[in-house]
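Study the following:
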Amino acid sequence: MMEFLSKNKSQKMNLIVTGGAGFIGSNLSEKLLTEGHNVICIDNFNEYYDPSIKRRNIELLKSDRFKLYEGDILDKNFLEEVFFENKIEIVIHLAAMAGVRPSIDNPFNCYNVNVIGTLNVLEVMKKFNVNKMVFASSSSLYGNNEKLPFSEGDNVDNPISPYAASKKSGELLCYTYSHLYKFNINCLRFFTVYGPKQRPDLAIYKFTKALLNHEPIHFYGNGSTRRDYTHVNDIVHGIINALEKLDGYNVYNLGESSTISLLDLIRLLEKYTEEKAEIIYLPMQAGDVMQTYADISKAKVNLAYLPKVSIENGLNDFVKWYKNNHSI
């Protein structure tokens, strides 16, 4: 693993993390603080899930190098205030309305946050002469891509959910600002991230909770769908390495490059929770893809990205974290 900013280890950076109190953002902020950097966290603590979860996420981040700004990326004046008060060097843009199914239920909200919000961030960066960004994109761009594994050069012109379309729009905006204003931007396509502090609406969290509370598990399809689950620690290391390699516009997959079926995922969770699942099968939902599978060869070469957490170890650790942090 390359060392973050290894060319100048004494240099400490001022970094904005949008969505910094969320699942990935809080894990990333914690790592950046341990590296000695200054983290400016932006989060609006919306009601997508219980805001108290996000507040707990950042309780342990108390530091004179950590600043929290509570506000919305849709508020351009708020963003300008944050940039004015801090000498920002790099933006890590994680804030988004996440989720395929919620984007189908409320495409306007998804579009506003993920596209207009991203445009606001880019415009404020331009105004304050900040030209470096890491942008959180998604494997959902690949849709039901028939070629496996998915590589960055594959066609992503056929998104099958508003969420996927909004993330592609974000990538296109990043390319435009790189072209027009010489921004250096790495767009990172995350593949099904899981781990400590995971959002409660995501599958591994929901399945673990159901098993430990002896509740039935509802899932869509026959259990044959496959995902490339990526542990949040590997994602964090990928983001940090991407900060060091900001040179023009680039797109990278960040996944484990390994897949597991939904049924096999349940079997592993049964093993680690020592509980037996009661499964209720439901029809596949619109917008869901059959499989995700990352080709990470580009990230390995250019970012020295090397995922280390197997799905077995990651799930075992997640169950332990859940038990330690929740009343069962």
Summary: Residues 1-10 have pLDDT under 50 and may be disordered. Residues 13-194+230-257+293-307 form a domain with the Rossmann fold fold (CATH 3.40.50.720).
